[in-house]
Amino acid sequence: MADVTVAIDVDVPCRAAYDQWTRFEEFPDFMPNLLRLERPDDTHIRWVINLYGEPMTFDDVITQQVPGDRIAWRTADGDTGHTALVTFRPIGESACRITFSLTTYPEGAAEQFGDQPGVEKGRAMGVLRSFKKHMEATWTPPA
Questions:
Q1: What pLDDT sits at residue 80?
Q2: Where do the Coenzyme Q-binding protein COQ10 START domain residues begin and end (predicted)?
Q3: What angle do CA 39, 44, 49 make, to 5 degrees?
């Protein structure tokens, strides 16, 4: 099992960051190794990722969603996989601290390799850095 919590400050308002984060179909724009993301309904997400050169599909269930504040999800089967929480906290009028917490329960050999100390944390921080770069490059304040 791995517990990871990482945070990053993004120079956009929290609501803008939250709104972008919940546009799941756009995750491949900033999430490395994500091949495709499908959203069959408001509470389910199907991820297709590249895990060490092999495609892997898994389903998640959104367990909590507070607009502008937080979103949480877990693996749909509930027993193995992962749980995640992303929170958005204002730091000034036009900046936001995004905190990403992830707990993984690896199953196979490839997942257990990814569960080694530092690997999952580095991956999570990479996602936040990519998100920050994407947001700061594409967001424009309303007129």
A1: 66
A2: 10-115
A3: 65
Phi, psi of 113 (to 5 degrees): -60, -45
Query: Long-range contacts of range 74-79, CB-CB < 8 Å, 24 or more positions apart?
Result: 76/44, 79/105
pLDDT tens digits, residue range 34-60? 898 988 898 999 989 888 888 888 899
Neighbours of 137 (CB within 10 A): 8
pTM of the model: 0.86
Helix ranges restricted to H, the chain: 14-21, 109-114, 119-138
All structural domains of the chain, each given as residue ranges with its CATH number in brackets, are 2-138 (3.30.530.20)
Would you state the structure tokens that stand for residue 111, as one six-digit string? 């997942």
